[in-house]
Write a structure and sequence with these properties.
Elements (H helix, E strand, L loop, with lengths): L15 H7 L2 H7 L19 E5 L5 E4 L3 E2 L7 E2 L8 E6 L6 E6 L5 E7 L9 E5 L4 E5 L13
């Protein structure tokens, strides 16, 4: 994981008014204003369906059910993103904590936070704690086109 304070420009850029039209008030609050949904209330916190999780704001593929695990924290948890470059990281010193914010690289929407070294039995010892409201699950096995980036 590498944090970046000066990322490349997002490929999906919309005026704030358009984001407000396209997203529900709750989606807008989390995705565009870096809010957080309450734990154990989101659609995917305990989901076990197979598929790919996409950014609810722009449709970019972000995470796979193959990297999802049960952390019992109340939000969907993943031990890695779907592929390098799908998410970006920012230092987040709000709320008196030092955290790493996770954002969609394509549209710069807030997704959640990354925590490291918590001792989960995962290959990376990382927990991407992502708000359900930021995701849309496209169920079924993931099929990659030859030019599509991804992990298999």
């Amino acid at each position: 994981m590498t944090t970046s304070e000066t990322p490349a420009a997002p490929s999906v850029v919309k005026p704030d008014a358009q984001w407000r039209e396209e997203l529900s008030a709750a989606e807008y609050q989390v995705l565009r204003k870096a809010g957080t949904e309450r734990p154990f209330t989101g659609e995917y916190w305990d989901s076990t369906q197979e598929g790919v999780y996409e950014c609810r704001a722009c449709g970019a593929e972000l995470f796979s059910s193959r990297e999802k695990f049960s952390s019992h924290c109340g939000w969907p948890s993943f031990f890695a993103p779907l592929a390098d470059g799908t998410v970006r990281y920012l230092h987040d010193n709000t709320m008196g904590m030092k955290r790493v914010e996770v954002r969609c690289t394509a549209c710069d929407s807030h997704l959640g936070h990354l925590f490291e070294g918590e001792g989960y039995d995962t290959p990376t010892d990382e927990r991407f704690c992502i708000n359900s409201i930021c995701l849309t699950l496209r169920e079924g096995p993931r099929e990659l086109s030859p030019e599509a980036p991804g992990k298999d």
